[in-house]
Amino acid sequence: MISDIWSDPRDFKTSLAESARAVEVVMDQLIPVPDGPEARVHEAMRYAILAGGKRLRPFLVLAGSALFGVSQRSALRVATAIELLHTYSLIHDDLPAMDNSDLRRGKPTCHKAFDDATAILAGDALLTLAFEVLADAETHGDPAVRCELVTALAKASGAVGMVGCQMIDILAESDPTLDIGEITRLQRLKTGALIAFSSEAGAILGKAPLDLRRVLVAYAHDIGLAFQIADDLLDTEGTAAETGKSVGRDAVAGKATFVSILGIEGARAQAEALVEQATNHLEVFADKAALLRDCARYIIERKS
Amino acid sequence: MISDIWSDPRDFKTSLAESARAVEVVMDQLIPVPDGPEARVHEAMRYAILAGGKRLRPFLVLAGSALFGVSQRSALRVATAIELLHTYSLIHDDLPAMDNSDLRRGKPTCHKAFDDATAILAGDALLTLAFEVLADAETHGDPAVRCELVTALAKASGAVGMVGCQMIDILAESDPTLDIGEITRLQRLKTGALIAFSSEAGAILGKAPLDLRRVLVAYAHDIGLAFQIADDLLDTEGTAAETGKSVGRDAVAGKATFVSILGIEGARAQAEALVEQATNHLEVFADKAALLRDCARYIIERKS
């Protein structure tokens, strides 16, 4: 299935859609259709993971894996683990105690469709499942590689990565005085940590040399920041119908964002510069990295 | 340090206290003293993990590891990972959306001392850190063993283990008609899954043969159930001062428990029978399992 996705590397949108479908098939298999009294937590997990979404992180894993001849099965399983983890973070971030969002991908958020307790547990279970998937022998024949994936994902998503930044993000809501350096550091860690892992995962799976891994991490840092700036622009300029989530929330919250600091034009220019820098990093891969280049551009041109 | 703990295997209480101290030292090293804007999540993690507690699960890991000549460092790291994971489950269970508990180990619960958002994030970060600790090369020289630990802990704590049972437990609050079979299954999974992993971890670390692993799992199932019955008895008969947490909550909630179904004497007799059965399982280890036998008895005689 993956070979089909990557057989025509010039067609980014088709590749993105097909990689999303492939990951959804694996997620569908991993979380059984609810049965028995614990059904509700499975139901909530399935609700959240099968609610659509761009599946950008899985795409990065698959595109990165293609550079190193990684097997389809390995790449798909890691792509799935990241999407499970990303979905957990969305469920918990949306909770009333956190961002209190009612709408996600055009549908009620998990705690709205179920309840807070179920949403907390569904998030916990998805986070746990992500590590279970990575550690499983099906993911890679070499257990040292699997351990490295677990370690890297844990670091990216834990207290010094994604979770730590969600903490800063919440505290920053009441502190509109953050400067551009602080905002950059915050967002680089928050969105960036998981995007960095997604971009690097193929290199870990393919046991790529350190210098090529560094190239992918540098690429990821730039697109991660560009992604966040694009999100801030969508929050300012997008509509709820387009983005599928509540918009204008940052301004209402008086929150410091790239847009509030740089202005709309400044933020757009900054995102453009980052995408150019990101694609420059990929020169060493020549044409083989065409999909990753397209992806960088897509990240700032998307409407949701 | 561990060798000291196990040098006099007849002294259970001293061993329990010393293993608790050893695990606390490792936890203290793992979670740095708060610094920088994400400090708050580290602060909440440290508040929760260093709040005391029996550290029963770490003790089981250390006692089980001693049966198979596992290195002190390996055993301590796995013991620590389990305590991190156990602590995350307490933080999330105590949240207003779940059990809504104000008191834990005689102190305000994490969300009371901080706030709900911080408590959710601290729990998420502890869960993530548990897997990071297991996957790290320091935990065991063989990455296949580390992957097996990650897999086993993920299964024990995920949607078909601990999290699934917390879901059933919440649903059961509004259903006092559960029968003894359903309650047993629920509690065996909820408390039992993590106790089973704690008891088996030493055998995984020591690459013990399957039949000895099964012995430890059988032992764990019995003490896990006995542990829950003892908890129900403490909730009925204990005082908040003794137990360090709110008591009498089950009766107020009209919740089906071992005590509500079997009566106080019936529940006590059942716990006694389980402890005897648990110690019988350990015959194959002869005197070497003395601490595990003492532990089984302690589980139903403790006052908190």
Features:
mainly alpha, Farnesyl Diphosphate Synthase, two-stranded antiparallel ribbon, 15 helices
Strand content of chain A: under 5%
CATH topology of chain A: Farnesyl Diphosphate Synthase
- Distance from N terminus to C terminus of chain A (CA atoms, Å) equals 26 Å
Count of separate DSSP helical elements of chain A: 15
Helix-strand topology string of chain A: HHHHHEEHHHHHHHHHH
CATH H-level name of chain A... which superfamily?
Farnesyl Diphosphate Synthase
Unreliable stretches of chain A (pLDDT < 50, length at least 5) are none
Quantity of strands of chain A, as a count: 2
What is the share of helical residues of chain A? Answer: over 70%
Biggest sheet of chain A: strands, sense, closure?
Answer: 2 strands, antiparallel
Structural class of chain A: mainly alpha
Looking at the overall shape, the CATH architecture of chain A is: Orthogonal Bundle
- Tell me the Rg of chain A in angstroms: 18 Å
Globally, the shape of chain A reads: globular
Spatially, the strands of the biggest sheet of chain A line up as 1-2
For the record, the count of structural domains of chain A works out to: 1
Please, what is the oligomeric state?
homodimer
Instruction: Write down the overall mean pLDDT of chain A.
Output: 88
Pair with the biggest interface:
A-B, 55 and 54 residues
CATH class of chain A: Mainly Alpha
